[in-house]
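forwarding from the other thread:

> can someone predict this with zinc ion?

sure thing
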Amino acid sequence: MKCRKCGAQAVFNMRRHKLALCAKHYLEWFPEQVERTIRKYKMFTRDDKVLVAVSGGKDSLALWDVLLEQGYQAEGLYIGLGIDGGFGYSDLSLEKIEGFMATRPEAVLHQVDIAETYGESVPQVAARKHRGRRKPCAVCGLIRRYVMNRTASEGNFDVLATGHNLDDEVAVLFGNTLHWQVGYLARQAPVLPESGTGLARKVKPLCRLYEREVAAYANIKSIDCINDECPYAVGSTTNRYKELLNQLELDSPSTKLQFYITFLKAKKQGFFQQATEQVELRPCENCGQPTTVPGLCTFCRLW
Ligand code: Q46
Ligand code: ZN
Ligand code: ZN
């Protein structure tokens, strides 16, 4: 297969675009797509301070790489969850991030180690709590959201960016639709606006790029990332949805992208609008972060 732009040997073929590209042209195409998404959904500009949540995986490192190369003020945030899984998952994540930064001296990283800062790792807190006894994911999600928001607000960041790709978004959309979680559907979007009371704007600049497209970018750029996913993600419902959706995509290319885009269009036309109730936020009595519950926020109640 030949590159459509220069005729050289193509390294990547995107069936959904009927587009094959060589390495050089792929490295032009990919950042252009990210840039288009940032502009289309008015995520941020080069004047904004962006905090990128990095896990050491291909998605977050590819996103950080593109943002730095495109001249955005993008700083990283690593949250040390203290997850081992028999191969030192959290430590290995940090190692990959440090390796990434070694060749990018301009990169700035903020680090929050949960056990060091709050006294217990994520699996330890989860084991103590009813909601996390079987799997720490609910507690982990709560802790990560809290730390991301807090770091963004304390560091005066305008926006918080995560590396969710199209496959991630579509799997979540599929699950939310299957169970008609209208509240979640109402809040699923490429951009979640800031609350005005201390909750940062949240954006997903890779939300229109397939996982394999992000992986190809990381690969061509030789970004050394952690290939294993979090041990608690193995066998998760989201992963099962991903397998199903991959099957559909194989039979008819572009299914995932169409599912996601038509969902966003339906939302624009007012679907799920009734489910977007405005909740009142007040500062937590202990940490001052915005919360919907009176007294202590759900994060402070964990400890
Ligand atoms: S929630 Fe669960 Fe993830 Fe936390 S414990 Fe691992 S799998 S990292 S996306
Ligand atoms: Zn080419
Ligand atoms: Zn609190």
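Residues 23-40 form the longest helix (18 residues). thats all i got for now
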